[in-house]
Amino acid sequence: MKFSELKPSRFIKRLNRFVGLVELEGKEYTAYIRNTGRLKELLFEGNVVYVAKKENKHPFEVVLASFGKFLVCIDSHIAPKLYAEYLRTSPQFEPRFGNKRFDLLLDTRPVEVKSVNLAEKGIALFPDAPTKRGREHIEKLIELSREGYKPLIVFVVQREDAEVFSPNWRVDPKFSESLLKYSKLGLEIKAYRCEVSFKEIKLKEEIPVVLEGIT
Q1: For residue 33, what are the CA distances in angstroms to 20, 62, 99, 138?
Q2: Report field, pTM of the whole predicted structure over 0.90
Q3: Which of 9, 63, 91, 106: disulfide with 24, CB 3.0–4.6 Å?
Q4: d(CA 170, CA 155)
Q5: Domains of the chain, each with CATH number or no CATH
Q6: What does the alpha-carbon distance between residue 189 and residue 204 come to, in Å, rounded to a whole number?
Q7: Class of residue 137 by CB neighbours under 10 A (exposed 0-12, middle 13-18, buried 19+)
């Protein structure tokens, strides 16, 4: 997936969940943040972030954030598109099952795709903030499996410095318990890390999923 032209800027502060303040070429601008996670290790005062022009209420949108020598894509909305691009298929997006909407439908298979931005010591972790919605989606997929569906959960790690994926037990034990329960029923979980540059982001390769034993 190609990015539009990105400009380096200095992150100042987060005004709310969806808006940050950045400094670009000596001026301050508001910038949209397409991610409701905490992102504390990425969006802090002084960190270099890369923004794209946005013709809307806010003149820019934060797309990438620096993490040492790596780049992290913080746009959580593109994860399902990245997975579909990787599969080279055109699935149905946002299928509804009862009162829940999922990210993709591959043939008759409901797929939930999660954007992962946090990594610690080579371990990609999700979520970085408690997510009741995420847990409810897992429980709904378990329910659908009892109706004959074969659900899939995919974690798209939008950075390169991760060797393994694990649920974030420390931050959200309830979500982690639900994911473990899902796995013990024989239901499928996959995780991929991405290759990220100033020009594009794409799924690079599958990485192992470790549900227990990582703290």
Answers
A1: 7, 6, 27, 25
A2: yes
A3: 9
A4: 18
A5: 7-73 (2.40.50.580), 76-207 (3.40.1350.60)
A6: 17
A7: buried
